[in-house]
Amino acid sequence: MSAVKTISETNATNLTLVHRGKVRDVYQVEDERLLLAATDRISAFDCVIPNSIPRKGAVLTALSAFWFGRLQNLTENHFVTADFDAMPEIVRQTEDFRGRSTLVKKTNVFPVECVVRGYLEGSGWKDYQATGKICGHDLPKNLKQCEKLPTPIFTPATKAQSGHDENITEAEFAEIVGSAIAEKLKLRSLLIYWSASEYASTRGIIIADTKFEFGTDANGDILLIDEILTPDSSRFWSAADYAPGRAQASFDKQFVREYLETLDWNKQPPAPVLPKEIVEATTARYLDAYRTLTGKELE
Asked: pLDDT per position in the chain (299 positions), as tens?
């Protein structure tokens, strides 16, 4: 079997590159449409890892498309199509976009991340250990690592262009986007998380936490944007193996973070190269997340 081609960077000479993020390359396609090209880059601790993860971009694209379709009755979104053959001819001139690109409506993006946590892990677990709170939310005492919270909580964060995103309180969130918008984004995020979690539980997956992004279109309507509910933006745990009080087996990039934590690395660029076995195991986890949630094999 031939090796799967990885793409760490896309280059389309016939399109204008708007932004090159940690994972996605964003191109202008038409006045009101953009192309999001998900590369196989992977980041951890806000640093891009030197080597790429085969098929990662395809998983992010296909799984986001699945969720946009499933959740479209809950919120408007920016999704147009992820079908390469249905895209404008100017996009189809670049074959590297096939299977890893999404045509979307252009929006004015809110400079915040809308994080919802249903379980106590990650930076939330660290905050709780230090203060007994997460982003200003008082929580019961003596909760264990990865324990299910009494109710999901909204814990927004700044959206850093470089460096680390930072957790903020809801009051700080409202100062950034305005109180009326803040309330809409909070309620919408909690509703999406609840619906997605209910579905995922029927597939044997716990969505421990996730982050959403929103923007406004030319009419001022709020749209759900970017990727949603992928192994990059969420913690996916196996419900069958779940037990609070320890780290969980995951279907997401937490696996990479845990490997990096074993190294003598200060979490500043440049990031270390991942060994082959970690790369292969990461691809397997991403594919497993897609297969389990959708019931399909990735084409």
From this structure: 346 889 999 999 999 999 999 999 999 999 999 999 999 999 999 899 999 999 999 999 999 999 999 999 999 999 999 999 999 999 999 999 999 999 999 999 999 999 999 999 999 999 999 999 999 899 999 999 999 999 999 999 998 655 567 899 999 999 999 999 999 999 999 999 999 999 999 999 999 999 999 999 999 999 999 999 999 999 999 999 999 999 998 998 989 999 999 999 999 999 999 999 999 999 999 999 999 999 999 98
Domain boundaries, the chain: 16-107, 109-252+289-294
Regarding the domain with residue range 109-252+289-294, which homologous superfamily does it belong to in the CATH classification? ATP-grasp fold, B domain (3.30.470.20)
Q: Which residues contact 247 (CB under 8 A, 6 or more apart)?
A: 121, 145, 146, 254, 258
Domain 16-107 has CATH 1.20.1740.10: no
Let me know the angle formed at the C-alpha of 168 by 148 and 242, rounded to the nearest 5 degrees.
15
